[in-house]
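So, who can interpret the following?
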Amino acid sequence: MNKVPAAKIQFLPEDRAWIAERIQEVLGTGQLTLGKYGDEFEQRFARLCGVRHAIAVNSGTSALEILLRSLDVEGKDVLVPTNTFFATAAAVVHAGGTPVLVDMDPDSFAVHPEAVAKSMTGRTAGIVLVHIGGIVSAQTPALMQLAREKGIWLVEDAAHAHGSSYRSTSAGAFGIGASFSFYPTKVMTSAEGGMIVTNDDRIAQESRIYRDQGKASFTVNAHVRMGYNWRMSEPHAIIGLKHLERLPEMIADRRAIASIYDEGLKEFRNLHALRIPADGFCNYYKYIAVLREKRNRKELKLLLREQYGVSLAGEVYEEPLHKQPVFEKYSAGPLPISEDLCSRHVCLPIFSGMQEAEAHQVLHALKEVVG
């Protein structure tokens, strides 16, 4: 029995050689941070998103916190989806703000404008929109309009959404700024790292200051912000550059597997795929499928792995933030849609280099176990 992993990182032999050669170069020059490869990575990533500025940092978490610090959220409320990763709400807290957790839209796993509007108060400074699984919600234009009408900003947590878009606008280009993650599980990686993207000149300048210990200039020890060491190293930028170059091919691989899943799941009674908006382009960081009824996912995963060799990927997310002990004090009460859908969805394995036979093995296993 072949084993299908939940995820796999792909670096082709020629790519590993290219990366190694350039890391040898920077080791020889001693320019190990804020050098030419970091600059090139920023420029190319800004072009991918269709924005003027990209600022490379050491993680997606840092990218979001820096953005929020640049927007001065201290003492203010920031609306955050409850079905997101810890880092989204934690970045608000670390930047001095208060996360207000919002229920999800069942059609996209993002937030819905109606839920956002109900959560707004006079203390609300902005919204963090998370592109869950790489899906840019069809509600994004309505959320942008709502933010404009209320005089607040919209920031994208695009940690999942490299190369995704909606109506030809790329993830990262909808809000006043966006954060991306290059953690190893993502569609593309720099081993560790993140990126801030924005069209706002002031935010770009502030972000560069914050990432380098709050210094006004790299060459002068004049600290003007309470920054931190949030820089990206040159070796990480080199890895990121090569994966960015491969990104179209890697997304094409994922989309080919997603097409097999889409077709296969049409025959299922108890499991259906989360639909992608008609005008959307999804990178399929996650392939999300919803169970008709709740099941013990721990048992389900064990059965699929042990008897069929299939490992499911992590959920988005297993437990909403308002149910997490560290965020309980930010909960305004039950958020029923998230509590329901967080408990009865699964994420099918999908990755660059995955074979068609592996996708069919996944479908066979699910048909046997879920039906």
In short: The CA atoms of residues 66 and 207 lie 6 Å apart. The domain at 13-103+110-241 is CATH 3.40.640.10 (Aspartate Aminotransferase; domain 2). The first helix runs from residue 13 to 29. The chain has two domains: 13-103+110-241, 246-369.
